[in-house]
Design a protein that fits this description.
Length: 198
């Protein structure tokens, strides 16, 4: 579990099934095999269960996946964008009682949260659990560009070119960490680059 003194930084609890749910969807991309196995185990007694995953992830899944898939409807996708697009369509037709469990990288799980929120799914019906890479989505506060796959504390903004300092402040609304101009006070004076988010 990742922790921070910053109160906006998400803290993730282990995935647990919500017994009040009448439908259960596990949506996963980029999670470790151990995390997927743990999720399959946690959701092994819920029904009906649907598993939404990126093909690459399930190709590396172990025996726990085969067991879970035997009792679930499986939806496989070529990538995150395809999965999220199909999820957005399906959630428009979801019934009350649906529980969504998002498992994977932070950009992915918070994108799932955003998709659900856009169609009116209550926040408490979506559980997010981080697993896998620590790379970040960074929002430039200057030009509003999103910078994907950030692994260091400094990143050149894809929108305006400023060198952004990646803050630990996380916006759930934007599903991103905040990036501020690193040398705003003294042009050219930059902190040492650290590859912290691998």
């Amino acid at each position: 579990m990742m922790t921070s003194l910053n109160k906006s930084r998400p803290v993730y609890a282990p995935l647990e099934a919500d017994p009040r749910g009448t439908q259960h969807w596990l949506v996963t991309s980029g999670a470790t095999e151990a995390a997927r196995s743990s999720a399959f185990s946690a959701l092994s007694n819920v029904s009906p269960l649907e598993i939404w995953s990126v093909d690459e992830d399930m190709a590396h899944a172990g025996a726990g996946a085969a067991c879970a898939l035997a009792n679930a409807v499986a939806h496989h996708f070529d990538g995150d964008d395809e999965l999220l697009g199909a999820l957005a369509v399906a959630l428009r037709h979801a019934h009350v009682g649906l529980r969504v469990y998002a498992l994977g990288t932070e950009p992915f799980i918070w994108s799932v949260q955003q998709v659900a929120a856009r169609v009116g799914i209550a926040p408490e019906a979506v559980r997010v659990v981080h697993s896998g890479s620590l790379h970040r989505r960074v929002y430039c506060i200057h030009c509003r560009a999103m910078n994907e796959g950030v692994t260091a504390n400094l990143v050149p903004c894809a929108g305006c070119g400023r060198r952004l300092l990646v803050r630990d402040h996380f916006s759930r609304r934007l599903a991103a960490f905040m990036g501020v101009q690193a040398d705003a006070e003294v042009p050219g004076e930059l902190p040492e680059i650290e590859h912290t988010y691998l």
